[in-house]
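tokens incoming
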């Protein structure tokens, strides 16, 4: 398990002392609170705190739209309406604070989502653990031949073994040198903030990440998508499960109107209408680029 004994003890202590509150709580989320869910070989994601629930989204919407929301009787219907019509601010009333342990190269993708608050483990102040992400054999894939940004078939045989050995040996060697450089036995010892620069991007880091539900769903739409890199997608998938237990109506609406939905260009809609009217629409007469036509085929087939 990726947690240290101290962290495990802290979680057990936090979970052993429930506190009474007048604030809205969600049983599904209370069950997750503080627990670490493993992701990749040493990573995890765990809920540190949350604010709000499905009702908080509706409460905010009813304040802002007043009588306009009266036609939607129940909370689920209102949330689905808000999601369908891109009303975003009611979803910002809910907040989630996570503790995430993740490889640095995943963190680099994750940090591009600027609408969150982050506090990261300091490798200037503390010594990084000897923990590196080494892909499972089935995830050790070759460069995709159709997608410059993706991966294809898993490597096999001697090549897979050699690559795995490189990853393990390079990580170990870099960490040995890191530890040796900062060690002060018989030498001054290089500052931690400098010694870390020889460490590879598969070393693990940790951070607290706090975000509102609107921006969290935006993150999940991009990172739980099949086009996202596997190593960040597995974090997004773990987070989707947490969100589903926290705000079930909002999560279902998100699945229906974002995750499972598609966006069509004006040309795509036009082609679809022509097809429904019985016209034979082809790549040649569709009025779209080759690539857009291919994407359209992906949507309708
Ligand atoms: C599959 C995939 C491939 C990618 N490939 C690359 C790549 O090759 N190279 C690369 O550099 N990035 C890449 N990215 C990162 C991507 O371009 C975004 O930076 C990242 O997904 C964060 O999205 P965001 O800016 O919408 O999110 P957030 O930063 O959370 O922002 C949310 C929304 O807030 C608004 N916003 C936030 N900050 C500002 C601002 N300063 N000004 C105006 N509006 C703002 C925007 O509307 C934005 O959509 C990739 C992402 C994905 C999912």
């Amino acid at each position: 398990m990726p947690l240290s004994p101290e962290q495990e003890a802290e979680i057990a202590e936090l979970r052993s002392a429930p506190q009474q509150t007048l604030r809205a709580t969600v049983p599904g989320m209370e069950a997750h609170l503080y627990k670490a869910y493993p992701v990749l070989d040493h990573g995890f994601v765990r809920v540190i705190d949350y604010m709000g629930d499905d009702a908080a989204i509706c409460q905010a919407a009813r304040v802002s739209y007043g009588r306009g929301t009266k036609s939607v009787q129940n909370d689920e219907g209102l949330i689905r309406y808000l999601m369908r019509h891109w009303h975003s601010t009611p979803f910002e009333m809910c907040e989630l604070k996570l503790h995430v342990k993740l490889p640095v190269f995943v963190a680099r993708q994750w940090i591009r989502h600027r609408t969150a608050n982050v506090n990261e483990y300091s490798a200037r102040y503390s010594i990084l653990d000897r923990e590196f992400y080494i892909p499972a054999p089935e995830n050790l894939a070759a460069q995709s031949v159709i997608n410059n940004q993706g991966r294809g078939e898993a490597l096999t045989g001697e090549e897979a073994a050699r690559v795995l050995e490189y990853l393990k040996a390079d990580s170990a060697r870099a960490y040995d040198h890191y530890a040796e450089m900062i060690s002060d036995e018989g030498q001054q010892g290089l500052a931690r903030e400098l010694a870390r620069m020889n460490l590879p991007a598969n070393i693990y880091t940790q951070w607290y990440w706090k975000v509102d539900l609107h921006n969290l769903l935006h993150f999940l739409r991009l990172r739980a998508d099949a086009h996202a890199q596997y190593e960040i997608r597995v974090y997004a998938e773990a987070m989707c499960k947490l969100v589903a237990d926290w705000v079930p109506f909002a999560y279902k609406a998100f699945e229906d109107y974002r995750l499972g939905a598609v966006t069509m260009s004006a040309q795509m809609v036009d082609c679809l209408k022509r097809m429904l009217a019985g016209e034979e629409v082809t790549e040649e007469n569709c009025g779209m680029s080759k690539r857009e036509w291919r994407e359209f085929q992906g949507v309708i087939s």
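note: The longest strand covers residues 43-51.
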